[in-house]
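Aim 2 progress update. The chain analyzed this quarter is reproduced below.
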Amino acid sequence: MAVPGAGIMGSSLSVCVMMVLLIMFSGWVLVAESAIGVNWGTVSFHKLKPSTVVDLLKDNNIQKVKLFEADPLVLRALVGSGIQVMVGIPNEMLATLSSSPAAADLWIRQNVSAYMGKGGADIRYIAVGNEPFLTSYAGQFQSYVVPAMVNLQQSLARANLAGYIKLVVPCNADAYESNVPSQGAFRPELTQIMTQLVSFLNSNGSPFVVNIYPFLSLYQNSDFPQDYAFFEGSTHPVIDGANTYYNAFDGNLDTLVAALSKLGYGQMPIVIGEVGWPTDGAIAANLTAARVFSQGLIDRVVGDKGTPLRPGVPPMDVYLFSLLDEGAKSTLPGSFERHWGIFSFDGQAKYPLDLGLGNKKLKNARNVEYLPARWCVANPYRDLSDVANHMKIACNVADCTTLEYGGSCNGIGEKGNISYAFNSFYQLQMQNEKSCNFDGLGMITFLDPSVGQCKFLVGVTDTSSSLRPYQRESSSIDIISKQIDRLYLGGEHLVQMLQDENR
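Predicted structure tokens:
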């Protein structure tokens, strides 16, 4: 029996349903806006309490955070915060997770299910590895990635979380290559595994996550145009047919878009897992450059400008690297590795930055508990000619990277270098009086020895600070000794030594 008006009602209903579906799935075709998040790394000698960091995130209206591992203290602090979380799995765990469904079940149970539920942590993504396709890994992890994801996906399904949590793989930008963006393609040896990976992501509604670092392009290539690394227009644009690229970020992103298109997934949503600019430890790493890059990036992303291959379609999310400085990271890539934070280790904003999240500038961490205002410096009344070995010990354990060539403390002279090294060690040892002895070459002062932008730190009292007496990182003692020899030379001798090495 025909019902009067049924055709109109059915047509209207169909239109409404279609509109709802378009809105629901618009992220897969056209992203309306991009959200700014941050990476929260914890490889630090001086760690703030996780609750203090969560308050810092909330005070700055940061609603998305990416973690590199499932740290129980961090995850507990995020419970009930309303902050969306991407939690990471280290590369070293991929082999086990790829071969053992039971191991995948256990990981999900201990690191995800345990923190979720009503009022729990809002875990949205699991990052399976971190840049597992880096060329420097020589294929060590790549065969484990997809099998690990399959096991983890099944574990999520058994935990009734598969519809809420998405698996992703943060990829490095050297996974794809091309002279111009439109010819982008994944590295030949990765074509098969990337086809499998992207198919898996697509079938499970996951985005492609990529880390993009224009700073590294500038740092590693002396011929790289400096203005092309930023967002203020370049005198050396890349011409690609009808498209012109004025910054490295857009060029890199469209190279990925082209690579995905070659595999048949040109509309796959993209998330920027890491992007940022360091503030110390290298010539181009400074506060001004970091501020200009970060603000330019945010303005471009929040402005929904997109790229030539995706006009008006910015990445789904962009995670700044990083929230805080991490003074215990390996310096093998460069001394700048410890200075990526938009905040210093103690949660103090390094430079003015509008995240586009409501605040016009960053808000500092509240209620940070510092050690007393005292420092360890070189004793001016002692002969310092035999201080080199003491500096090696100090900087082998503590962080002296700001003394490196191009660092903020590079120009403070020999005695300044010694004092900085001594103080870094002293603060790391929670100001233990004996740690400032150095066979009588050190002394404690209550006058701040900081000089200009070279800040002599005071540690925090948080019990989670990493006391690492006489523990050194993986770099060899020869590398460390060479670095400390440079620090002791100082001034013109330091510059001359570096010039000789680069010949």
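Confidence is low (pLDDT under 50) at residues 1-32, 465-503. The CA atoms of residues 52 and 365 lie 7 Å apart. These observations will guide the mutagenesis experiments scheduled for the next reporting period.
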